[in-house]
Design brief:
Length: about 140
């Protein structure tokens, strides 16, 4: 199947985790605070940077390909992940035809350490590939 006929679904939440107790977090939402030589800004990145990266990549592809993307793109950018997601769940149920895609790209994972990013190739309840190495 040629790439031009394929569709990718990009998903990213952008909300900030709610605090159930006022003393739960020492950093206000979105406000950078330095502690122990590390900058903290609760809610400043969880998934905002990743989705911005996707949008800038799409913008670059659009500009360099004469105004046409080499693949169909659908975006879900939503702010309900931390509060149960009832609205997005309803949206997906009601608009499932409009959200059909050949594959999904979800950039909502974490880094194991500051200098150790990771790439996840499967998600629980989404798709989990199975690899079986074989000796030659």
């Amino acid at each position: 199947m040629p790439w031009a006929s394929r569709t990718v679904l990009l998903h990213a939440p952008f909300d900030v985790r709610l605090l159930t107790r006022l003393n739960e977090c020492t950093t206000p939402p979105f406000e950078p605070t330095e502690r122990n030589r590390t900058i903290y800004a609760r809610g400043a990145v969880d998934d905002k940077g990743q989705m911005y990266m996707h949008l800038k990549a799409l913008e670059s592809l659009f500009k360099t390909s004469g105004g046409n993307l080499p693949i169909n793109v659908r975006l879900i950018i939503e702010g309900e992940e931390e509060v149960g997601g009832e609205g997005i769940a309803r949206f997906v149920r009601e608009h499932s035809e409009r959200l059909k895609a050949d594959f999904a790209l979800v950039s909502d994972t974490e880094m194991f350490a500051p200098d150790l990013p990771r790439c996840v190739s499967g998600c629980v309840a989404c798709a989990t590939p199975s690899l079986r190495p074989q000796a030659r």
